[in-house]
Design brief:
The chain is of the alpha+beta class and 283 residues long. It is built from 7 helices and 10 strands.
Length: 283
């Protein structure tokens, strides 16, 4: 999201919103202000908070977009009028000194699969909407203090996925971070030594920095059907561990709606963590 927000800012900052089309009825989570109220407003900036894109308009109004897991964003030049399958919304921007009927660039938000979780909000000045209650960003002093002092007894993978604890990591980068730090996903902050806590902070910084450097090489929007190929271990169950010298195979723990990937040798001292899917197969 950080790299995407940077590309959108470079493309759109200073342009004027011509049109905001609601293409998926349930995706818009606010009713006041209306999308039409932003027509003719100048887009000041495109930024990010956690996994949300934040579009700041003159007058203080904002559009906040969350792509969820299967949401994608296409840049259309010129903008289209079609409604592809899974369409969520289309935003059309043009030069600030042209008439409102002049259209330059379209931003199509769409979603793969059958679940419809991608969402957007139009926020009045001062309204935080879904951004309220989010935890500190990775790399911030607040997050570092939490890792160094917390006695949380929850699994590390749970804390890293909780957007109220830390914003924007999620399960994908969380798997890679714990693998880089050589920590069991079922360990807790309470169980970690001071040195292990520092290893975790270093892994968060290094994994996200490497990921951002790679994502900045991606052109355009975020259109690919599958984006998981850039993870080191996440969703790579059954593949060789990427740690040099390790000969183990990546294992997983399956939950109802997602799975977690780890290396038994590097992270759990050779122990295979309990997995409901594996337990059912062994019965």
């Amino acid at each position: 999201m950080q790299a995407l927000s940077e590309r959108l800012h470079a493309l759109l900052a200073g342009t004027t919103l011509r049109r905001a089309d609601l293409l998926g009825f349930s995706s818009l989570k606010t009713y006041d202000p209306t999308p039409d109220s932003l027509k003719g407003r100048r887009l000041l900036s495109v930024g990010r908070r956690a996994k949300y894109l934040v579009w700041e308009f003159d007058g203080g109004a904002r559009v906040v977009v969350h792509l969820s897991q299967a949401g994608r964003l296409d840049i259309e030049e010129p903008p289209k009028k079609t409604k592809p399958r899974g369409s969520v919304a289309r935003f059309v921007f043009g030069p600030g000194d042209a008439g409102l009927d002049t259209e330059g660039t379209g931003i199509l938000v769409r979603e793969h699969g059958t679940q419809r979780k991608a969402s957007w909000w139009v926020l009045a000045p001062g309204d935080e909407g879904p951004l309220a209650g989010l935890g500190p960003e990775p790399g911030s002093e607040e997050f570092a203090a939490f890792v160094r002092t917390s006695d949380s007894n929850r699994h590390l993978t749970t804390d890293l996925r909780d957007q109220h604890v830390v914003s924007g990591i999620g399960r994908g980068w969380g798997d890679d971070i714990l693998h880089r730090a050589k920590l069991s996903p079922f360990a807790s902050l309470r169980s970690l030594s001071p040195a292990q806590r520092e290893d975790l902070l270093t892994a968060v910084s290094d994994v996200l920095a490497d990921a951002l450097e790679l994502e900045r090489t991606r052109p355009g929007g975020l259109s690919e059907g599958k984006l998981g190929g850039r993870f080191a271990v996440h969703n790579r169950f059954g593949q060789p561990c990427p740690t040099p010298g390790c000969t183990d195979t990546l294992a997983r723990v399956s939950f109802e709606s997602y799975e977690m990937t780890y290396c038994p040798t590097c992270q759990t001292g050779g122990k295979v963590l309990a997995d409901r899917r594996l337990s059912r197969l062994l019965k």
